[in-house]
Amino acid sequence: MKTDIINRSDKVIAKTYNRFPIVITRGKGCTLWDSEGRAYTDFVAGIAVCNLGHAHPVVSKALSDQANSLFHVSNLYYTVPQVELASWLVDNSFADRVFFCNSGAEANEAAIKLARKYFNDKGDLRRNRIIAMEQSFHGRTMATLSATGQDKIKQGFNPLLEGFDFVPFNDIDALKNKINPFICAVIIEPVQGEGGVRCPDAEYLKDVRRLCDETGALLIFDEIQTGIGRTGKLFAYEHFGIEPDIMTLAKALANGLPIGAMLAKEHVAAAFGPGSHASTFGGTPVITAASLEVVRTLVRERVIDHCSQIGVYFKERLLWLKDRHDSITDVRGIGLLLGIKLKTDGEPVVKKCMEKGFLINCIQGNILRFIPPLIIEKDEIDSLITCLDEIFLRG
Ligand SMILES: *Cc1c(COP(=O)(O)O)cnc(C)c1O
Fold first, then answer.
1. What residues form DSSP beta bridges with 342?
2. 104 lines ligand 1 (CB under 6 A)
3. Residue 1 CB: number of other CB atoms within 10 A?
4. Which CATH number covers residue 34?
5. Is residue 334 assigned to a domain?
6. Which pLDDT belongs to residue 395?
7. Residue closest by Cα to atom 11 of ligand 1
8. Are residues 156 and 20 both part of a single domain?
9. Does 296 lie in the same domain as 371?
10. Nearest C-alpha neighbor of 166 from the set 142, 191, 147, 193
């Protein structure tokens, strides 16, 4: 079966991913099984998606119950799960309104459109530029790619959308020099994920907020990776004592079902009136019913507290590993968004981990990223640390 699936996939699927040669067929909690029956402890979680692990029974039940009653109707009508999920998000964040869509890129598209429309409605037509960060990642659609600060993934797609300026992340003076009355928004990940698990200095985001307030620009937080408990708080902005004007969510919001959301404060959200933006599937009952159960379960089972505590433990173990191996030059991250920087290429380490039954992820060539389900336990972390220790000892 395995070779057959791999061969067929390589013939018919677009070649946009370099895939590892395993076929994953089943999951439970933090464990995945392949077609050969081999088990893997999952430190990738579908790239920070399956925060409650795989096949969570409560989520599966919410999904199937809703599927047996109503999959989808147009947003021309009201539906219950959509209202319930939006209310939960509003009650648990700075925001007053939610726009639902289907992915992270779409949520950021909505944020970019809203920021421009907000000033357009005020008659400030020239205020349409957006400052984004170097090394940022905001998605693969044309607008979100234009907002992404990594040249290598932008190559070949010109002309990109106009109106984006870039400054180095975590450099307040650079932002101060670039921000001006033509800037409608600053878009930033509170912790850069794809860019290499990069945390800002304690005061940086506060200073960004202040610069936006002083110049009138909106502040957009892309919490697509950091949101829904990943950093040890429901949203990463809670660590920094400030609030954005707009926030985007996706990845973990429905634990693996496609959903995106753009949240905003009332006066900003007001710029999206009837007909200004839309999505056929956005907030559809079957997805929002499952998502609602995801967020309720996070609270009921105290998953975010667990993430916060176990994240500290995991980071300590990674620091222990760094002390033992010169090949590790940095340990970084917060909650269960953690990374270690290597002197050498990280892919061989990923492959060796996979052979030993652990799925981990490498970004930017030499950064190993650990983004397991938030329900990961100590013994699973200890096993990975032992495995990494052996790999770094023996090469
Ligand atoms: C994954 C990610 C996106 C893109 O989300 P998609 O659902 O793949 O479109 C955008 N921003 C951040 C910070 C992400 O981690």
1. 328
2. yes
3. 10
4. 3.90.1150.10
5. no
6. 72
7. 138
8. no
9. no
10. 147
Give yes or no for a contact between 227 and 249, defined as CB atoms under 8 angstroms apart: yes
- Residue for token digits 């200095």? 201
Task: Pick out the chain residues at pLDDT < 50.
Answer: none
Put simply, whether the predicted model's pTM sits higher than 0.85 gets the answer yes
The tens digit of pLDDT for each residue in 1-10 reads 899 999 999 9
Q: Tell me which of 51, 102, 112, 138 to substitute to probe ligand 1's pocket, judged by most ligand atoms within 8 Å of the beta carbon.
A: 138
Is there a domain that residue 336 lies in?
no
The two three-digit tokens of residue 304, written as one number: 């975010």
Mean pLDDT taken over the chain:
98
If asked whether residues 167 and 222 sit together in one domain, one would say yes
What φ, ψ does residue 274 adopt, rounded to 5°?
Answer: -55, 130
| Residue 276 and residue 320 in one domain | no
Do 252 and 219 have their domain in common? yes
Q: In total, how many domains does the chain have?
A: 2
**What radius of gyration do the chain's Cα atoms show?**
21
Domain identity same for 138 and 154 = yes
One domain for residues 312 and 266: no
Measured between alpha carbons, how far is 195 from 307 in angstroms, rounded to an integer? 22
% of residues, the chain, pLDDT over 90 = 99
Cα(350)–Cα(374) distance, integer angstroms = 20
Residues 6+ apart with CB under 8 A from 60: none
Range of the structural domain that residue 131 is part of: 58-300
Rounded to whole angstroms, how far apart are CA atoms 380 and 244? 35
Q: For 132-169, write each residue's pLDDT tens digit.
A: 999 999 999 999 999 999 999 999 999 999 999 999 99
Find where tokens 């205020």 sit.
Answer: 127
| 139 CA distance to ligand 1 middle (Å) | 5
CA of 23 to the centre of ligand 1 (A): 24
41 shares its domain with 105: no
pLDDT at 125: 96
Q: Helices in 22-132 by DSSP H: which ranges?
A: 45-48, 57-67, 80-91, 104-121
In a domain, 160, yes or no: yes
Q: Is residue 335 a part of any domain in this protein?
A: no
User: How far apart are the C-alpha atoms of 325 and 37, rounded to whole Å?
Assistant: 33
